[in-house]
Specification:
Length: about 160
């Protein structure tokens, strides 16, 4: 029998090794899972997804650094938002009105966006004409418009 039986550290070292191994394995798995989720949010490309996960699985931390360097800077959601903003900007430059919620073209006198239900304008309580949401006074009849103020006061 090894002489280590009488000395305590033997089992402790085994326990520490097992614990360390478990922690390392858990970290490794979470790295892979995180990469898989992150790459799916950033790319639709199957090959890119598989490559990213494989790189992290094989190379672990260096693989992760490599992935962080090479991954697309914007998620697909951010990409979509940016394209909406671009469309809205182009439409504004062309003199057209767009919905701030979905970026679709809307008409001057529309009150609510038919596509996403975003409130576009408010009606004057007195003369009923369509007013910009930021206007406090109706420019047509001079009536103060408080309709939207109650909402913003509730927010604040
Ligand atoms: Zn809309
Ligand atoms: Zn008015």
């Amino acid at each position: 029998m090894p002489s280590g039986e009488s000395i305590l550290p033997g089992p402790y070292i085994q326990l520490a090794t097992a614990l360390g191994g478990a922690i390392l394995a858990a970290t490794w798995l979470s790295l892979i899972l995180w990469t898989a989720r992150d790459v799916r949010a950033r790319s639709d490309d199957r090959l890119a997804q598989i490559l990213a996960v494989t790189a992290v699985a094989l190379l672990t931390i260096p693989g992760l650094f490599l992935y962080l360097l090479l991954r697309p800077s914007r998620t697909l959601e951010e990409e979509y938002q940016a394209s909406l903003e671009e469309e809205a900007l182009i439409a504004t430059l062309a003199g057209r009105l767009t919905c701030p919620g979905c970026g679709r073209q809307v008409e001057q006198d529309w009150r609510i966006c038919p596509a996403c239900s975003t409130v576009l304008r408010k009606a004057c309580t007195d003369c009923g004409r369509m007013l910009d949401l930021t206007w406090n006074v109706c420019p047509y009849c001079g009536t103060a418009t408080a309709a939207m103020e109650t909402e913003s006061a509730a927010d604040a």
